[in-house]
UniProtKB/TrEMBL annotation:
PANTHER family: APICAL ENDOSOMAL GLYCOPROTEIN PRECURSOR (PTHR23282), MAM DOMAIN-CONTAINING PROTEIN (PTHR23282:SF101). PROSITE patterns: MAM_2 (PS50060). GO terms for cellular component: membrane. Residues 5-160 form the MAM domain. It comes from Peucedramus taeniatus (Olive warbler). The gene is Malrd1_0. This is MALR1 protein.
Length: 160
């Protein structure tokens, strides 16, 4: 998509996630990278790019942080739609909300390993009276071959 609010990770440019290519732990890759599953993006394309946790990562978690969004209003709630892959053994993906006035991140959605190694889709709706950031936090408990957490095609609505 050509929308500035869509991050499909085909390039390193993404207005809403300005630092995604700098975050330690997340790697931009495709299914042909030789880094284990997933072997294709959410459309089944082996050569299309997505983000996944690096299997070489020393720590077991990595955060992906958005730009600061303005407060939402009743007409324009912030909807974030994304595709995700969580390996069935020990992967976890959380989405957190950090409001301007708070130091801590509030967890607003999470999923872990009961899903059977396939791409899934989720939409979260955020209603905030103050400026906020959204944080995607991926975690793997083990470094076994095939343990993976991945994100693809994050789309942000006009209200974000």
């Amino acid at each position: 998509g050509s929308s500035g609010n869509n991050c499909d990770f085909e390039t390193n440019l993404c207005k809403v996630l300005p630092e995604f290519n700098l975050q330690p732990g997340w790697v931009r890759r495709n299914g042909q990278s030789g880094m284990g599953p997933p072997y294709f993006d959410h459309n089944g394309n082996e050569s299309a790019y997505f983000l996944s946790l690096s299997s070489e990562m020393q720590s077991s978690s990595a955060a992906l942080r958005t730009n600061v969004f303005l407060p939402t209003d009743e007409e324009n709630l912030c909807q974030i739609r994304f595709h995700y892959w969580v390996s069935q053994m020990s992967g976890t993906l959380k989405v957190g909300l950090q409001k301007d006035s708070e130091d801590t991140v509030t967890n607003i959605w999470q999923v872990s390993g009961e899903l059977q190694n396939k791409w899934n889709t989720n939409t979260i709706t955020i209603n905030s009276t103050e400026k906020f950031e959204v944080i995607f936090l991926g975690m793997v408990e083990t470094q076994r071959q095939g343990e993976s957490v991945a994100i693809d095609d994050i789309t942000f609505s006009e209200g974000c």
